[in-house]
Amino acid sequence: MTTQTEKMYRTLVKLTHAQEIHRERKREALLKDLGNYTLTQLHILGCIQQHDAVNNKVLSDALALTKAAVSKAVNKLLKDELITTYQIEDNQKSIFYQLTKEGEHIADIHHVLHEQAKANYLNFLATMDDETLAKAQLFLEALTNYLEE
């Protein structure tokens, strides 16, 4: 391994550790503000909030989740009365979801937290020049493809 390769490896390990710490802090904040819900459950609430006629297939496609993962998350949200079900008159086969008032409240908080995180990332990225960002983009895309294999 070259010295640069070893330095990059150490940086990736450090990044992974920093991400774990960041996720844990974020989870603690989420627990405080949003209760004990998973990110999947929160993203489902957001998806229902943003779209009409949301069913398991829509959720699975929009969030890139298995149908089993969607069903598990939806069942918890139904049990906790954050969402309810309904059917469309001309489609009695499909079950659709809508938010309750409490579900709407939690989805709103989650949306605000997402916007804050986005703003923080964009502020950080704005400190980089375009050439650095382009190289970083290529690297991150290659790493993501490698990890998805």
Automatic annotation (TrEMBL):
Alphabetized PROSITE patterns for the sequence: HTH_MARR_1 (PS01117), HTH_MARR_2 (PS50995)
Pfam families registered for this protein in UniProt: MarR
Keyword field contains Transmembrane: no
Keyword DNA-binding: yes
Stretches assigned to the HTH marR-type domain: 5-148
Keywords, ordered alphabetically: DNA-binding, Transcription, Transcription regulation
Domain of life of the source: Bacteria
Protein name: HTH marR-type domain-containing protein
Lineage, uppermost ranks: Bacteria, Pseudomonadati, Pseudomonadota, Gammaproteobacteria, Cardiobacteriales
